[in-house]
């Protein structure tokens, strides 16, 4: 039976690693991001290597109209989405609150909270519509939504203020979705990674690669592949089992605040 995964933020980091992991396991893929050149390169590579079908769906998750229109206008045979990986997001800046940049705050809230909500709503509506089919119900859950949280959504750290708030919001929305999706037989899993070396810190520090690298000083951080493995594990469990909330860090990180940077593991 055909399986479809929809991944936002697939042009880098966790999203790209998930695209490879799910393609390797036979999923057809709907891939989103803003950088269309990267989407094209990724789609070509996945189609060639794994013989899967890829639908490129470029949009900015901040653009409400683009999100809803793009998802509603997908070809009908792509609307039977099994898994949503609601991953697109970013941090911008790491400043004391009173020195924070309001434009950075707006972008983080518009992307990590509002964009995240638009995608979750548009895709969950499609999953709920499928739930009306008794044929699908006979095959177990009618959808699995993976929301990308963070350790930053579990504890607030110094200079994390608004980014942490956006991930606390993801956490609260995941809890709410999980309750409201119960009656639709849809799983909701919140994944909360700690430090992982992707493009995340380069974006956060606006291209300052030196500062971005310092974040991982003395650490062997998570890789995007580590996170993709865990996400795939959550999705591949039996139909009646749901991991609701999962925090994953490297061995040198206890939570959003405490690290042991002395050991090179
Ligand atoms: P990357 O910067 O490597 O990737 C971010 C992805 O999000 C890119 O594909 C980017 O694509 C996409 N994206 C960003 N803004 C938008 C937008 N407005 N519309 C559509 N796509 C967008 O970071 P990560 O892979 O590390 O981060 C992915 C998620 O994981 C984020 O939500 C982040 O907050 C979270 N996270 C990251 C951790 C880390 O330490 N790396 C730890 C915990 C959570 P494009 O630019 O092409 O649009
Ligand atoms: C990304 C992890 O610790 O930089 O969400 O906030 S952290």
| Low-pLDDT residue intervals, each spanning 5 or more residues | none
H/E element string? EHEHEHEHHEHEHHHE
Report helical residue fraction. 40-55%
**Structural domain count:** 1
Quote the distance from N terminus to C terminus: 42 Å
Strand order of the largest sheet: 3-2-1-4-5-6-7
Question: What's this, in brief?
Answer:
The protein has a single domain, classed as NAD(P)-binding Rossmann-like Domain (Rossmann fold, 3-Layer(aba) Sandwich), CATH 3.40.50.
Structure, described:
- By secondary structure, the protein is an alpha/beta fold.
- It has a single domain, classed as Rossmann fold (3-Layer(aba) Sandwich).
- It is about 45% helix and about 10% strand.
- It has 9 helices and 7 strands, in the order E-H-E-H-E-H-E-H-H-E-H-E-H-H-H-E.
- A 7-stranded parallel beta sheet has the order 3-2-1-4-5-6-7, with helices on both faces.
- The longest helix has 30 residues, at about 100-130.
- The protein is globular, with a radius of gyration of 18 Å.
- NADPH dihydro-nicotinamide-adenine-dinucleotide phosphate binds near residues 13, 32, 35, 61 and 148.
């Amino acid at each position: 039976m055909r399986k479809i995964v929809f991944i936002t933020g697939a042009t880098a980091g966790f999203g790209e690693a998930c695209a490879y992991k799910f393609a390797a396991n036979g999923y057809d893929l709907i891939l989103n991001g803003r950088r269309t050149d990267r989407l094209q390169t990724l789609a070509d590579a996945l189609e060639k290597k794994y013989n899967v079908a890829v639908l490129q769906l470029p949009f900015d998750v901040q653009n409400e109209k683009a999100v809803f229109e793009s998802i509603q206008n997908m070809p009908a045979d792509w609307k039977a989405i099994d898994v949503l990986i609601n991953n697109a997001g970013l941090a911008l800046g790491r400043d004391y609150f009173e020195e924070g940049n309001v434009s950075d705050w707006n972008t983080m809230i518009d992307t990590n909270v509002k964009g995240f909500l638009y995608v979750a709503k548009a895709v969950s509506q499609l999953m709920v519509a499928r739930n009306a089919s008794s044929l699908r119900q006979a095959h177990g859950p009618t959808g699995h939504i993976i929301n990308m949280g963070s350790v930053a959504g579990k504890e607030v750290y110094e200079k994390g203020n608004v980014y942490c708030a956006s991930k606390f919001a993801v956490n609260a929305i995941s809890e709410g979705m999980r309750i409201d999706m119960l009656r639709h037989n849809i799983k909701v899993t919140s994944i909360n990674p700690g430090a992982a070396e992707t493009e995340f810190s380069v974006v956060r520090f606006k291209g300052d690669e030196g500062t971005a690298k310092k974040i991982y000083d003395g650490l062997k951080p998570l890789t995007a592949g580590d996170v993709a493995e865990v996400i795939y594990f959550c999705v591949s469990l039996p139909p009646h089992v749901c991991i609701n909330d999962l925090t994953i860090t490297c061995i040198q990180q206890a939570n959003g605040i405490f690290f042991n940077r002395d050991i090179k593991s």
